[in-house]
């Protein structure tokens, strides 16, 4: 199904330039919510419309997924029958429509007034164009005005051209979100596989060793060949403590809700409190500005961390995973008695230091490169726009630094309140 409406030869040059700008603006983002908002803003400016809406299928109905203008707050999320009114006709036929009291290019159509009761906005002139993906309508772009001459038949080709750009932008954003979902699902599967390996390699072996030792000692004691000794109980206790520590880590990693609910700093604070401190390790979370001055927080403790400005979800997730891996290494392998996570906030970038006082390793990270997750940590830092470095020695502890991570300049409009 092809859109048969063409731009008239008399279309002014400034309108052509405006449509070119429209295409550049709406296709310059891959975030669907942002794309929809840009479409609404640009169509409003392009046609001087009083109301603009994007409707997309919702079962058998059409749903207002994005609305701007008078009464918009009452329409967002509402649905109307998919076979009703101008937008229903456009969705079913793929034909663009103009409508005002003087006439229409589609006989028998009228404005669906029932929905206007919700918006309290009375349209006298209306334009609607299909959002086409190939030859299939995936939605409708609609513009409305309260005056009969507010939108004219000459405006319809402009809306059609805008709808073609809008359909491309929406399709690209939807594909990007689908790809992101697939990547997240793959990452989740890989994380589950990693946890399963750690459960098998660490906890299972410890529990098996405890079972074998306890069984052998019981048989020897029953046969009168062994007298219970304190060191036997101590050995079992050490194995049990090791297994408990591993299980606590795995359980905590399976409960990442703190990151979504409390943000990066809140999640780090809770992690240090729930894992390191409960394991008897002195743990601190320090937040400073670039010069090392303590960052002003609204209150003490975890509440301060929760109140801190949220970063983008992708950035919070990536940084948290790096810190989590570094802390896991310190708890499980270094024998550290103290750890500290130091967050430095610059004007547009941030850095993280994860320090421990445990057994370090040679500066060449090859021996620990794969088994300790350093390769994946470096890759995460690179994907976030920064880099990761390691300072360590066999007797001097370890510092893992993540530096030059952009968090303001590129993410301002995505930061959450």
Descriptors:
single chain; 417 residues; alpha+beta; Beta-Lactamase; Heat Shock Protein 90; 2 domains; seven-stranded antiparallel β-sheet; 11 helices; elongated; disordered C terminus
Give a topology summary.
Layout: H1 13-26, H2 32-47, E1 51-58, E2 61-69, H3 72-75, E3 79-81, H4 85-93, E4 97-100, E5 103-104, H5 113-119, E6 125-133, E7 136-145, H6 156-222, H7 230-253, H8 257-276, E8 282-289, H9 302-307, H10 313-334, E9 338-345, E10 349-356, H11 374-383, E11 387-393, E12 397-406
Rg measurement, Å? 31 Å
Strand order of the largest sheet: 3-2-1-7-6-4-5
Predict the CATH topology of the largest domain.
Beta-Lactamase
Specify the CATH class of the largest domain.
Alpha Beta
CATH architectural label of the largest domain = 2-Layer Sandwich
Strand content: 15-25%
CATH superfamily of the largest domain: GAF domain
Structural class, by secondary structure, is alpha+beta
Query: How many strands?
Result: 12
What would the average pLDDT be, to the nearest integer?
A: 79
Main pleated-sheet profile? 7 strands, antiparallel
Portion in helices = 40-55%
CA-to-CA gap between the ends?
A: 44 Å
Distinct helical segment count: 11
Instruction: State the order of secondary-structure elements, H for helix, E for strand.
Output: HHEEHEHEEHEEHHHEHHEEHEE
Low-confidence stretches: 365-371, 409-417
How many domain units?
Answer: 2
InterPro entries: GAF (IPR003018), GAF-like_dom_sf (IPR029016), HATPase_C_sf (IPR036890), HATPase_dom (IPR003594), His_kinase_dom (IPR005467), Sensor_HK_TwoCompSys (IPR050482), Sig_transdc_His_kin_sub3_dim/P (IPR011712)
GO molecular function: phosphorelay sensor kinase activity; protein dimerization activity
EC number: 2.7.13.3
Protein name: Histidine kinase
């Amino acid at each position: 199904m092809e859109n048969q409406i063409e731009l008239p030869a008399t279309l002014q040059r400034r309108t052509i330039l405006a449509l070119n700008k429209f295409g550049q603006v709406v296709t310059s983002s891959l975030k669907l919510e942002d794309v929809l908002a840009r479409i609404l803003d640009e169509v409003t400016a392009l046609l001087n419309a009083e109301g603009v809406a994007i409707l997309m299928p919702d079962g058998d109905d059409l749903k207002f997924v994005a609305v701007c203008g008078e009464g918009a707050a009452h329409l967002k999320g509402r649905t109307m029958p998919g076979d009703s009114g101008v937008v229903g006709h456009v969705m079913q036929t793929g034909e663009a429509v103009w409508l005002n009291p003087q006439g229409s290019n589609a006989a028998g159509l009228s404005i669906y007034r029932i929905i206007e009761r919700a918006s309290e906005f009375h349209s006298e002139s209306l334009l609607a164009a299909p959002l086409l993906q190939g030859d299939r309508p995936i939605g409708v772009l609609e513009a409305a005005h309260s005056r009969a001459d507010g939108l004219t038949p000459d405006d319809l080709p402009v809306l059609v051209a805008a709808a073609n750009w809008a359909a491309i932008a929406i399709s690209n954003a939807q594909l990007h979100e689908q790809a992101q979902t697939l990547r997240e699902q793959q990452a989740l599967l890989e994380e589950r596989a990693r946890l399963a390996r750690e459960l098998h390699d660490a906890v299972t072996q410890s529990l098996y060793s405890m079972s074998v030792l306890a069984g052998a000692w019981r048989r020897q004691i029953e046969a009168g060949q062994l007298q219970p000794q304190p060191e036997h109980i101590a050995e079992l206790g050490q194995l049990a403590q090791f297994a408990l520590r591993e299980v606590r880590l795995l359980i905590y990693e399976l409960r990442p809700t703190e990151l979504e609910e409390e943000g990066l700093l809140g999640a780090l604070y809770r992690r240090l409190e729930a894992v390191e401190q409960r394991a008897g390790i002195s743990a601190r979370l320090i937040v400073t500005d670039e010069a090392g001055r303590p960052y002003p927080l609204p209150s003490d403790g975890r509440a301060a961390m929760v109140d801190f400005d949220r970063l983008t979800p992708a950035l919070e997730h990536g940084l948290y995973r790096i810190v989590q891996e570094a802390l896991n290494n310190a708890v499980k392998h270094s024998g550290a008695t103290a750890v500290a996570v130091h967050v430095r906030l610059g004007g547009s970038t941030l850095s993280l230091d994860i320090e421990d006082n445990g057994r370090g390793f040679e500066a060449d990270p090859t021996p620990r490169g794969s088994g300790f997750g350093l390769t994946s940590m470096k890759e995460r830092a690179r994907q976030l726009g920064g880099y990761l470095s390691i300072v360590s020695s066999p007797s001097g502890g370890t510092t893992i630094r993540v530096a030059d991570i952009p968090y303001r300049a590129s993410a301002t409009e995505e930061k959450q309140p």
